[in-house]
């Protein structure tokens, strides 16, 4: 059984809860008091992850850290459909890696702004917000042209991949860092599509979408 | 400049920004909009603020017919923006006046146009742009004032669509205004007209919405879109750099309209009397079943008031009769009222008139919808039992529950298959419809006993049909353990023989008046003569409109609206038929 | 003495929370913002604490000896938090249950929210949103009804009291699988603080106490301190804290999407329903007190 070292308000932990829910994977959680307790810097947690960062999983003794890495692992091992991380498709794998790196960029800007505003982390708030807007502009353009080409997701496949899961949380939580998504209508539509993936679950700060129109 | 801009039409979204079941977050001149397209195609532009606690409706849910606020689940109807349901008080019908502020919406050139104040004139028609033959560019948000954006757009350079790989197009400014620039690019034999509308989002924010005069297909279309996206993005970066040099103007602070005074407190019963406030046209008349005519009533102009499932209207007929008909519409079908009229040969002629005289295109006077038969949506399961034409209010209710995916069963008793009315709507209920055809009274009783055999806490029962069937159903429900509060019913008419021989005194506590009610007159008539404006509708004790609260005295109930517990409590009275057993009644009026 | 940026005497003269003592390392300077002014604070781990207007010579993170400080602000340690005031404060409201020895007392978290303090208080008093915002935790459709409850403004204690509040909770306690009505009592003893009493799953005869203390950073930003004082012998601290953070995290996007951000006191600004009785009382109470900070006063 998979154990997720988890903090409810963490968007990075949520990525894994979301994918495991979509894939129907059973797991248990060990709560980590990230804030205000800073338990991710405690001795016992540093032994699991010397970087002192969430999330970490333990899959029957196999310990892995880093949200994006864990998404790759979970999809590779447990996705029977083979669509979330399509191992035999080099182009898609390349694109997925590209967007996983982009997701790290979203974490270091949008998530940082949220930590600053909500949990009083010491970041240069104007810089991280501007950084998030720069990424969101690029993403909105990518998604808008995707719609024009009949593509709904980040990568050129007719189904979502772990790239969509990796980018979604800190985009959806951006307003908590004072980053409005009003100027990114294509991102807002894509967020609705992600919320309508079968098996989607919410976290605190994310509301579900209503039902799509029945065909 | 921005002051005059308020009464002008501006684009606020691209048509493709409004896919079904999505809410677009728009803004114009500082005022935020929640913009959503209903499943019937109607584009709603609303103030982005729930009237209850100010939460943005753009984080709410577009369910195709209504917009649901994320905070307390208040539902607002397509078109009218009227509130149709307040989940915290499931037994009450919301006051009709709870209506969000709406703004005009017109679709042209692939854009949605609106205005923050009453717009003057029509949406601009642009010479050289034809509906159906244009290409809409990606909207480019710019952090700069609109006038600065317009000024820089005059120097925008691009290639005509037929020569996208060239680099030497000649650009001519064809027209320019405060919020638009039209440019023509020519190279070789190719030329393209590009019209850019600049949406003033706020004092320091704009969106460039470009439209080209010719469409293209496939890869060529994408190449043109990318060409402009790239050049407009560059232009944006330059404008933003320039704008950043100047101090940013203060954002425009939108003024929110005050609500009507009656909404400041929990609304009291409003006094409308028996008025025919609306004029509607019969847009369609058809045979909805054997002996039942369906009517689609559309407004002569503007919008119809918001209705809720269970609501009825008074129809004032050409022959002077007034009849009540329940609205059969599903949620969000707010461009018309659908009613069903059963032909009753032995009646005073209301239904005959509707069947035989009223034709498509005729204009009828109707009252605003009133809801004395509100639907709770907090039941763990709802059972509907309809008899004959009693199907209409229950059909509206069942469609609402079906749309919200709330558990229900719909039992519909008729003489035969051909008497099942509104087949298309019934089909939409899918698995929840259970027709019971051709049962005699005894078999009907047995079937009802079966349907009502299991009561669980949190279930609710809604009944509408002929009097004897309702009596039977209520009796069976009581025997099966259904508490009175869970049994809701509506009679077509009051078949009780009204005894108006008593005379007594009525004191109106809040109006400080005492009136004498003689034999032969109703409380309602006497109050009207004294100038008290009391709402009423059926005036025969069936619909519930003229309900009053009794403070003192013993009512002599002659209506069919109140349930037994309400009667026994002696705290409510239907003033159109009921009277007093005591010498004096004190009413809270 | 510096001029305070807040000119509302009611608010200036109140006690305001700054931080939970458990989150402060002893002998070290912390700083924050209160009513648009930078304020620094520290405690010595022995029960002594101090707060002062920040100055460059003693930045956050520096070591400090509390008894060496001059020109300090009034301070109070209460309910696990350090409180101060920029004016002349009176008594802080009582929470008698805090003295009960068998209760667990925790700071669930201190979280920043982009909203005025009164909007956050109103949300704390509200039950109607449970099925929509705290779905499957504090409420669930179709159980949406807010039943009649009582509200009074206690003149003697100068606080709002809402009693007989009940709301259907899908999983009423950790041991039950069935839903049931849960009882609540709400107090608003301070314009920016509220205390909630709720049926305790662990002890039928007593109530859990959950309080929200809002530190106004400015008119449209707060630090929300969530105090728990509950009966629970089983769960680790972090489990209890996680529950409350989950709930508050769900409220956050609602609060940050409310407009205007300051609470409008004009009765015709928003539409109340019967379920909002306590909110109506709260708005009237603020009006009567003459509070202007964090609200949009009604035109007179």
Summarize the structure in words.
The complex is a heterotrimer of chains A (215), B (589) and C (300). Chain A is 50% helix and 8% strand. Chain A is built from seven helices and four strands, in the order E-H-E-H-E-E-H-H-H-H-H. In chain A, strands 2-1-3-4 form a four-stranded mixed sheet, with helices on one face. In chain A, helix 4 packs parallel to helix 6. Chain A is globular. The model of chain A has no long low-confidence stretch (mean pLDDT 97). With 589 residues, chain B is α+β, with helices and mostly antiparallel strands. Chain B is built from ten helices and 35 strands. In chain B, a hairpin with a 5-residue loop joins strand 7 and strand 8. Chain C folds into two domains: 76 residues, N-terminal domain of TfIIb, CATH 2.20.25.680; 201 residues, Alpha-Beta Complex (Naphthalene 1,2-dioxygenase Alpha Subunit, Chain A, domain 1). Chain C is 16% helix and 33% strand. Chain C has five helices and 15 strands. A seven-stranded antiparallel sheet of chain C has the order 7-13-12-11-10-9-8. In chain C, strands 1-6-5 form a three-stranded antiparallel sheet, with no helix packed on it. The longest helix of chain C is centred in the last third of the chain and has 19 residues. The mean pLDDT of chain C is 93. At the B-C interface, loops of B face helix 3 of C.
Q: Which range does the strand content of chain C fall in?
A: 25-35%
Low-confidence stretches of chain A: none
Tell me the strand order in the biggest sheet of chain C. Answer: 7-13-12-11-10-9-8
Radius of gyration over C-alpha positions of chain C, nearest whole angstrom? 19 Å
Quick check: average pLDDT of chain A? Answer: 97
CATH H-level superfamily title of the largest domain in chain C = Naphthalene 1,2-dioxygenase Alpha Subunit, Chain A, domain 1
Which structural category fits the helices and strands of chain C?
alpha+beta
Low-confidence stretches of chain C: none
Overall domain count of chain A: 2
Shape of chain A: globular
| Largest protein-protein interface | B-C, 36 and 29 residues
According to CATH, the fold-level topology of the largest domain in chain A is Glutathione S-transferase Yfyf (Class Pi), Chain A, domain 2
* Largest sheet report of chain A: 4 strands, mixed
Keywords (chain A): Transferase
Domain GST C-terminal (chain A): 89-212
InterPro entries (chain A): Glutathione-S-Trfase_C-like (IPR010987), Glutathione-S-Trfase_C_sf (IPR036282), Glutathione_S-Trfase (IPR040079), Glutathione_S-Trfase_N (IPR004045), Thioredoxin-like_sf (IPR036249)
Domain GST N-terminal (chain A): 1-82
């Amino acid at each position: 059984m998979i154990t997720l070292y988890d903090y409810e308000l963490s968007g990075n932990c949520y990525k894994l809860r979301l994918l495991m829910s979509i894939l129907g994977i059973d797991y248990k959680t060990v709560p980590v008091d990230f804030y205000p307790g800073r338990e991710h810097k405690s001795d016992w947690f540093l032994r699991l992850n010397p970087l002192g960062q969430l999330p970490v999983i333990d899959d029957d003794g196999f310990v892995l850290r880093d949200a994006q890495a864990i998404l790759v692992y979970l999809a590779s091992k447990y996705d029977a459909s083979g669509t979330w991380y399509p191992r035999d498709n080099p182009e898609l794998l390349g694109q997925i890696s590209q967007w996983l790196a982009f997701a790290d960029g979203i974490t270091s800007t949008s998530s940082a702004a949220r930590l600053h505003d909500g949990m009083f982390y010491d970041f240069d708030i104007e810089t991280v917000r501007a950084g998030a807007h720069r990424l969101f502009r690029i993403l909105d353009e990518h998604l808008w042209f995707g719609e024009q080409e009949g593509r709904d997701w980040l990568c050129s496949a007719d189904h979502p991949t772990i790239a969509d899961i990796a980018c979604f949380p800190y985009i959806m939580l951006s307003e908590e860092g004072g980053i409005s998504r009003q100027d990114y209508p294509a991102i807002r539509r894509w967020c609705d599509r992600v919320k309508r993936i079968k098996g989607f679950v919410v976290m605190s700060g994310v509301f579900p979408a209503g039902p799509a129109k029945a065909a | 400049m921005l002051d005059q801009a308020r009464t002008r039409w501006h684009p606020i979204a691209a048509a493709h920004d409004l896919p079904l079941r999505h809410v677009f977050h728009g803004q114009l001149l500082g005022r935020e909009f929640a913009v959503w397209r209903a499943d019937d195609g109607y584009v709603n532009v609303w103030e982005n603020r729930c009237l209850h606690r100010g939460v943005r409706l753009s984080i709410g849910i577009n369910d195709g017919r209504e917009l649901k606020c994320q905070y307390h689940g208040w539902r607002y109807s397509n078109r009218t923006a009227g509130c149709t349901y307040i989940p915290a008080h499931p037994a009450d019908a919301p006051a009709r006046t709870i209506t969000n502020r709406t703004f005009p919406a017109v679709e042209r050139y692939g854009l949605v146009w609106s205005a923050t104040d009453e717009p003057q004139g029509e949406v601009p028609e642009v010479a050289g742009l034809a509906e159906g033959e244009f290409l809409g560019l990606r909207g480019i948000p710019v952090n700069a004032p609109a006038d600065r954006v317009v000024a820089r757009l005059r120097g925008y350079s691009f290639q005509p669509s037929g020569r996208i790989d060239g680099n030497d197009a000649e650009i001519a400014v064809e027209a320019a205004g405060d919020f638009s620039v039209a440019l023509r690019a020519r190279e070789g034999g190719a030329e393209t007209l590009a019209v850019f509308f600049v949406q003033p989002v706020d004092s320091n924010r704009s969106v460039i919405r470009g439209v080209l005069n010719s469409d293209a297909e496939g890869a060529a279309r994408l190449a043109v879109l990318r060409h402009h996206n790239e050049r407009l993005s560059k232009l944006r970066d330059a404008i933003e750099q320039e704008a950043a040099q100047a101090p940013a103007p203060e954002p425009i602070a939108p003024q929110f309209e005050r609500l009507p005074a009656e909404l400041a407190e929990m609304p009291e019963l409003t006094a409308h009397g028996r008025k025919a406030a609306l004029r509607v046209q019969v847009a369609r008349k058809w045979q909805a079943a054997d002996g039942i005519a369906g009517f689609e009533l559309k407004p002569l102009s503007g919008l119809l008031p918001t209705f809720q499932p269970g609501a009825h209207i008074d129809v004032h007929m050409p022959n002077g009769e007034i009849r009540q008909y329940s609205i059969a519409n599903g949620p969000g079908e707010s461009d018309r009222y659908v009613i069903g009229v059963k032909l009753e040969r032995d009646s005073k002629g209301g239904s005959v008139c509707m069947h035989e005289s009223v034709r498509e295109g005729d204009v009828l006077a109707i009252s605003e919808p009133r809801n004395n038969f509100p639907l709770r949506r907090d039941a763990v399961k709802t059972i509907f039992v309809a008899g004959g034409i009693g199907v209409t209010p229950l059909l509206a209710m069942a469609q609402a529950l079906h749309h919200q995916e709330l558990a229900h069963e719909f039992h519909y008793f008729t003489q035969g298959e051909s008497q099942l009315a509104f087949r298309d709507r019934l089909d939409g209920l899918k698995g929840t419809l259970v027709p019971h055809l051709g049962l005699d009274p005894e078999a009907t009783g047995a079937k009802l006993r079966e349907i009502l055999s299991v009561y669980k806490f949190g279930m609710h029962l809604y009944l509408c049909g002929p009097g004897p069937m309702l009596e039977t159903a209520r009796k069976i429900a009581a025997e099966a353990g259904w508490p009175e509060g869970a049994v809701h019913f509506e009679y077509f008419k009051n078949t009780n023989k009204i005894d108006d021989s008593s005379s007594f005194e009525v004191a109106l506590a809040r109006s400080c008046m005492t009136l004498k009610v003689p034999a032969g007159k109703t409380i309602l008539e006497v109050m009207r003569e004294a100038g008290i404006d009391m709402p009423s509708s059926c005036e025969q004790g069936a619909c519930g409109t003229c309900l009053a609260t009794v403070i003192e005295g013993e009512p002599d109930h002659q209506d069919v609206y109140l349930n037994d517990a309400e009667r026994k409590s002696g705290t409510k009275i239907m003033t159109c038929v009921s009277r007093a057993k005591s010498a004096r009644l004190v009413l809270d009026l | 003495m510096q001029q305070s940026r807040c000119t509302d005497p009611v608010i200036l003269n109140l006690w305001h929370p700054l931080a939970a003592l458990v989150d402060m390392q002893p002998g070290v300077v912390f700083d924050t913002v209160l009513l648009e002014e930078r304020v620094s604070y520290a405690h010595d781990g022995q029960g002594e604490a101090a707060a002062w207007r920040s100055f460059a010579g003693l930045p956050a993170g520096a070591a400090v000896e509390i008894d060496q400080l001059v020109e300090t602000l009034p301070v109070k340690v209460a309910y696990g938090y350090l409180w101060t005031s920029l004016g002349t404060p009176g008594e802080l409201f009582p929470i008698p249950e805090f003295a009960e020895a068998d209760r667990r007392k925790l700071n669930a978290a201190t979280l920043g929210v982009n909203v005025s303090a009164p909007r956050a208080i109103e949300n704390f008093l509200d039950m109607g949103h449970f099925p929509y915002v705290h779905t499957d935790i504090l409420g669930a459709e179709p159980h949406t009804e807010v039943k009649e409850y009582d509200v009074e403004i206690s003149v003697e204690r100068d606080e709002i009291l809402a009693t007989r509040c009940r709301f259907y909770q899908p999983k009423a306690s950790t041991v039950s699988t069935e839903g049931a009505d849960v009882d609540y009592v709400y107090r608003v003893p301070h314009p920016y603080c509220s205390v909630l009493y709720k049926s305790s799953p662990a002890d039928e005869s007593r109530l859990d106490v959950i309080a929200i203390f809002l530190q106004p950073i400015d008119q449209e930003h707060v630090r929300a301190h969530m105090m728990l004082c509950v009966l629970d012998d089983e769960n680790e601290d972090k489990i209890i804290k996680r529950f409350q953070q989950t709930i508050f995290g769900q409220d956050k996007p609602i609060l940050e999407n409310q407009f205007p951000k300051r609470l409008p006191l004009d009765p015709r600004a928003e539409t109340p329903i019967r379920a909002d009785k306590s909110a109506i009382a709260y708005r009237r109470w603020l009006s009567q007190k003459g509070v202007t900070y964090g609200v949009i006063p009604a035109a007179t």
